[in-house]
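Support case: user asked for a sample of complex input and structure output to validate their parser. Sending the pair below.
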Amino acid sequence: MAFTFTAENRKKIDQILPQYETKQAALLPILHLAQEQNGYISPEVEEAVASLLGLPIVKIREVTSFYTLYEKKPCGKTPIRVCRNLSCTLLGGKEILDYMKQRLGIDVGESTPDGRFRLDSVECLCACEMAPMMQVGDAYYGPLTKEKVDEILKKAGSV
Amino acid sequence: MEPILSKRFNMKDSHRIETYLATGGYRSAEKALKTMKPEAIVEEVKISNLRGFGGAGFSTGMKWSFLPKERKKPVYLVVNADEGEPGTFKDRYLMERDPHLLVEGILITSFAIGSHKAYVYIRGEYVKSYQTLQGAVDEAYAKGYLGKNIFGTGFNLDVILHMGAGAYICGEETGLLESLEGKKGFPRLKPPFPAIIGLFGCPTIINNVETLSCLPTIIERGGKAFADLGCEKNGGTHLFSLSGHVERPGLYELPMGTPLRELIDQHGGGIRGGKQLKAVVPGGMSAAVLKADEIDVSLDYDSLKKAGTMLGSAGVIVMDETTCMVEALMVTARFFAHESCGQCSPCREGTGWYYKVVQRLYEGKGRMQDLETLINISANMAGNTICAFADGAAMPFSSYPVKFKDEFEYHIREGKCNVKESYAYARD
């Protein structure tokens, strides 16, 4: 089914476009809006954005496939990103990731069956002072223990 | 030491303009715009020995003076807030705890380089930084510190915040420009440098968040006073991100040239649980590793370069005696393989090989010639690509296997780790 922006997002796009010298420069912010609305960047979203900005679809695909924050398939609503980089690994990040997999019953790159969470293991989120750490939705959490993970998941609405 | 960059970090409502104005905020910008000529500001910045705190450590005043003298096109200021170097978290603190310091730095810099539009490129995961900084920008517009006719001088400036979407390479300044233009973040071939042809084909200056946050102090006290805060050829103070096996990980503002040992022992409270120090990465993941007996070195660009490593973004990662250095290098290899943008073959292939080889060592299936292979890959990558990513990636792989040779050889010979008892390593 064809994708169309909501009236509210169209208004936002009208504010974004004049901020740049070229239409193409608005691509990243517009894709962020599209993902917020649609949950992920589908081929239909790519098509709609391409026609909005007057770009070939391949220019959109180049960008969605290059950046990690654009989801390319349907996925759980709230991202859980557990850091796997050095400072977090030194302080038990791997154990936190394993515990998270067990708690959610899914592997890295998968979403919970109820569609609420998706789990990722990510490179440095630049919060090494709170290692081991993770991001749930927009917020950063750390230093993590298994007990804290339980608390955060409870707060986020998981059982 | 009196803090300059972090002095408001623990104040109540430190991100609000009321707090900023009550503590001397925007007075430097007023002084600069009303009483100084742009060339005079550039001169003060040269005298200040301010060097780019994004990691390269290039003279900021010098960078600004590369702009063409004749202006036929608009000039852009681009703020690099794409913090991503593992071990670093200083720009996040600046944006979330004292965003007006950055806004004032942007205003002074834009006036000095003759720019009327500044873009701030913030990494996509930094949602709170984005929201806090946007709040500060809105407050500044409302009070007339941004927008039209600032301080009644006729100077106009717009500041636009732009979210990245998850790519370490966009911290490289020309990769960032590509990304800001709505493309994948492939770094550009240089020359031409961005000061000549940058954003939208126009002259562009790209500066790091912390670098720009130094400007209000330089204007307030003068370049000489700022230079005197640091050490020879390294002006000012710096925000050191300390993490890993220390008692008190955190962000510490210290003069340039502070001894590394002082940062770890005094400020960081020493090694966690009374354990022995084993290794330190002094400047983010792309820096060569230092052994425990190599930490009597000053934290400045020149001293660390002389010690065969680098200050980089001042992300100091401390490892104690329980650390498996092969695992640490495997984590490093995984990072670089994941983040190589893939544009240049030596880097795209080289980082993949690093990861394969170190993964093999880590699993206890390594071969003796693997150690030489790592050194060879580094030799073939460094200096052979468009940007500095490959040079940074090469540094750990030419240092870990050399400095911790015994440990790497033990893994190969015995097929197990000499530090960690359990060896249940799963490929991930």
